[in-house]
Amino acid sequence: MTSDKKQMARCLELAKMGAGSTSPNPLVGCIIVCNNEIIGEGYHQKHGEPHAEVNAINSVTNTDLLKESTLYVTLEPCAHYGLTPPCSDLIIARQIPKVVIGTIDPFAKVAGKGIERLKNAGIEVKPGVLEKECRELNKRFFTFHEKKRPYVILKWAQSLDGFIDINRSEKDFGQPTWITEDKALQKVHEMRAVEDAVFVGTNTALIDNPSLTVRRCKGRNPVRVVLDNQLRLPKNLKLFDGTAKTIVFNSKQNYETGNISYVKINFDKNILPQILNELHRINILSLIVEGGKQLLESFINENLWDEAYQFIGNKFLTDGKNAPKISGNIVYRENLDPDKLVVFKND
């Protein structure tokens, strides 16, 4: 590994420390190197707070060394005023002579303008170091800005014989059919803690009465999204308990009450693009679709998904609702004893 790649790898490590806290901003890590030694490090810790470059520069003890240093950063320094000033201006003001960048920022207000500003100030700029890895780190951010929708993650649990639920009568409503055990459930809550929103259909909300919150690990609750065309879901469901922001897509009305937003869409047209457009509008970078079967298959059939998490429980159901069928590249497998996880990517 070359020296530049080694330094960028450290930036990637730092950037990951902000997972679950920076959205709708990207994950960014930054280091400052002088005479082959790291003299400053930083990462973007929370949305609205200083960016990685600012934190790295502020961590340098002897600021005179900045004029002899190279700044490494996973994403192009910003060139616009948002909640914080442009990082490119700070780099110029501190007279850092060289900047090595992982990937260009897809955000329209940056998108090469940061690099241009640095070059115009006489700073040497080297982009594209570990570019693939830097894009993968911020796949949600890139999808959001390039495809104008959230990054969509499908998720379901299925039995060894391929069922996601038993056939239930109304007397069985209110509790999920547990297919997987503790390690798999922990993994699901870890996913919720770092993604922006989680989505279920009407039947899943009614039959399973899920909370869709983070309880088995530390982290903030995702925004809960539910379909309720005719507004028939009872208000005593856990989704309406006010513990997390909840969006109800329906055909009747737009209004807000407490932590719940009702958003009207046209159910005579394809609803998925309407939902994804609205989530994009309110800066939701990523969405877990947790079911049920009909909703999951709608995303699969429309090819509106990026990853799929298939949890396979170590049990047989014999009969019930068939699990979704999906084709994609298997990119990851994990043993969650006694269960298994298979992750697909839609390429």
Structural class: alpha/beta
Taking all Cα atoms into account, the compactness measure Rg is 23 Å
What does the largest sheet look like? 10 strands, mixed
The general outline is elongated
Q: Number of DSSP strands?
A: 17
Report how far the terminal alpha carbons are from each other. Answer: 27 Å
| Mean pLDDT score | 94
What's the structural blueprint in terms of helices and strands?
Layout: H1 3-16, E1 29-34, E2 37-43, H2 52-58, E3 70-75, H3 87-93, E4 98-103, H4 113-120, E5 124-126, H5 131-137, H6 139-146, E6 151-158, E7 163-165, H7 182-194, E8 197-200, H8 202-208, E9 223-227, E10 246-250, E11 255-257, E12 260-264, H9 271-281, E13 286-291, H10 293-301, E14 307-312, E15 321-322, E16 329-336, E17 339-345
Helix pairs in contact: 3-4
Identify the notable features of this structure and list them briefly.
elongated; alpha/beta; 17 strands; 347 residues; 5-stranded mixed sheet; 10 helices; 10-stranded mixed sheet; 26% helix
